[in-house]
Amino acid sequence: MSSVYFDHNSTTALKTEVLEAMLPFMASQHGNATSRHSFGRTARAAVEHAREQVANAVGAYANQIVFTGSGTESNNFAVRGICSNLDKGQILTSAIEHPCVSRPALAIQTSVMQAKSIHVDSNCNINLAHLQKLLLTPTSLVSAMLVNNETGVIQDITKVAEIAREHKAYVHTDAVQALGKIPVDFFALGVHAMTVSSHKIGGPLGAGALVLDKRIDIQPLLYGGGQEKGLRSGTENVAAIVGFGAACDLATKNLSAFDVHTANLRDHLEIGLAKLNAVIFGYNGFRIANTSFFAFKNVEGETLVTALDKAGFAVASGSACSSDSTEPSHVLLAMGVPEDLARGAVRVSFGLSNTVQEVEHFLLALKQQLTRLRNLTAVAA
Amino acid sequence: MANMNQTDRPPIYLDYSATTPVDIRVAKKMIPYLTEHYGNPASRSHPYGWTAEKAVENAREEVAKLVNADPREIVWTSGATESNNLAIKGAANFYASTKGKHIITIATEHKAVIDAVRELERQGFTATYLEPEPDGLVDLAKFKAAIQPDTVLASVMLVNNEIGVIQDIEAIGNICREAGVIFHVDAAQATGKVKIDLASLPVDLMSFSAHKTYGPKGIGALYVCRKPRIRIEAQMHGGGHERGMRSGTLATHQIVGMGEAFRIAREEMASENERIRMLRDRLLAGLKDIEETYVNGDLSHRIPHNLNISFNYVEGESLIMAVKGIAVSSGSACTSASLEPSYVLRALGRSDELAHSSIRFSIGRFTTVADVDYTVELMKSKIDKLRELSPLWEMFKDGIDISKVQWAAH
Questions:
Q1: For the whole model, what pTM was predicted?
Q2: ipTM of the complex as predicted
Q3: How far is Cα B207 from Cα B402, in angstroms, rounded to an integer?
């Protein structure tokens, strides 16, 4: 079993303070937040407190936070909910979106509401000229992620939103990988809707939110008891929501420490990677500090990841959500990376708990495994 | 006599149908998956992911076992609301072109079913909201008569959340099978209370919730029958989790909690139901001698956990405020933000007044005899007090038929 965890973009360990905040709501404070008695009112107060905490972390008002079950749900809610109230206008998603943005767009497209992809350049930046060109056709929604989960490249969403608004399109951004890593400000970004998720910032799995400009007409994904002002029915997952709120407070508090600490680790790593002749994807893009996405020519990513796991290091070969498939990363293909190099991709993503020593051990292990795998290939050939 | 001073201790919880506390055994199983085993179950490249995935699959087996299904028929969701939405919208959309666009459901279903059907109506489907009989049960002949050539789907709950009545799912399912209608059952209020055998029941889709059965909130499941194979259109797209039927990172600790909660339910259901029936009968025996009380819903086809009573000439909201020593509900928790009289009781033909004066007592795993005795005494004394203040009660006692009174505006 690997003992060093370098896969924090996939999910990251729950923070102790978060668990402490959650525990009462898993035990004695068990009320349904919609109930009128004291159990229910305690649960309601906890949910509303968490709503304030999330709002503070993303530069929004509390009444703009709609709690959901996950980032996936928030993204589906945004894309389907905004578009299904409009009867025409294309849906534009960037070519590097998580499938939970691009697939709902494909699922709801009709002959008068086509889903189209916005190109990115070789540094994983959205091609604004292509966006402008696409927007010449009437558009209902533009969805572009704030930070790409694989490369860690940060998009200029403020600019994307400005352009989209000029063309009367709604704008959604998936900020799941941005929260806790860079400052996230809903108002400054100028988007109509923004997705955030709890478990990527040290909160529990099972809670997410859509930050929403409530002036827009959005259709719910789930109908029923009318929770979240009718926008998301279903009994509130109080413990997870409380944990999400606590994690948001911590994320804000630790933001600069996270940036400084993981940038140091990443730089250590990438100096070593350069010596091993790795290709680092999005290297010239503006990236979050904790992520490095790279490949070695003629070394298969899956094989390398498995070998590294045996050597004690948990890393990813792509986003976990699509780790079921063996297709090369759609992000890399969109950046124009050749398919065989894309198949070699390995993602390292750091957290506050990682150390320079771990990185140095990792580089040693990586060098050994590369030599071993290349020898095997040489023998096979 | 029990101490009626209500301020110095937490109220007695008699609202288990709104939500249940997490069983301590469940919480203990969950916590390691919040702390050391925090992997994403979809991560295939390292043991953090494998450990999580194994836990998810064990839990799937436990959930399947409680209802005698194949684990491959269990799809995780965020709760029964999502399961109901996925089943109803997913099946209706998938089969609309082959079977038709008419849906049958019952007027007393949970809002998650009713509102999902309403949403389909907005998309061009038609729907029949069948009224149950005054005892809350569905008349089979009326159900059969409601089926049209283009009926695609029927949705009937196993146990009603407000009055606890149990529908004859087997008979209704057989009618659906004969007519080629997809049959969905909301079993959120049934698990751990009613034996469910999906290997023999003619049910195509069934919704479950964890937090009504001593598991955590935020997790549920949908049973999707494999034989005959039922198809649904996904409502949430993404990484293709749950064989494409429902994308989204699985919340491992919550799934583990649901599995453990359902395991405990399977093992302890029989003895627990006996104890709870004893408590419910004791509660009913204590309350039934209060004048002008009406039990809502059939008492024989009913889970032992539920007692729903209307106390005539007492306003439900005032009563709730008066009995702060107990935590009960005057309607389903999900709609208790509104002051509308319960639509479920209205569908049984209860007057607005009786619907407004109803209290749902729901008993559970941690309810004691002392809790029940205290409740009986509290209810008796508070109802007496409220009626003493009520001019309507005085008129009733004077023999005036209030329904015939001509009220004058002034």
A1: 0.91
A2: 0.88
A3: 43
